[in-house]
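Morning F.,

Quick status update on the modeling queue. The single chain you submitted on Monday has been processed. Sequence for confirmation:
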Amino acid sequence: MQPPTRDCSTIIHAAAAASAGVGAGFAQVPGADAPVLTGIQAAMVISIADTYGVSLTQAMATQFVLGFVATVAGRGVSQWLVGWILGWGNTINASTAAALTEAVGWAARRHFERIS
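Structure tokens below.
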């Protein structure tokens, strides 16, 4: 059974919007948003898995998210380059957090679609 793409799309876009808010809010404090973003992304992965009838624990979902090491690297580069600039840093960090959360979400959807 395949869930409609729209269900996963709603989950992914909601998580990306939440991540954008966190990225914008923590822009001037490098690395402070990482635990919050990981939690948002893990909750997103659990929700996506659930739409495919797969049960995941928080620890398993966190491991899935941490597999995307490029996410951490991308956020770090973004914060290092412009995070300290009030306004611009907030906007760029929000965009980066949202885009990376979207990428993790769509990768999770493809993963659970393949295994279900």
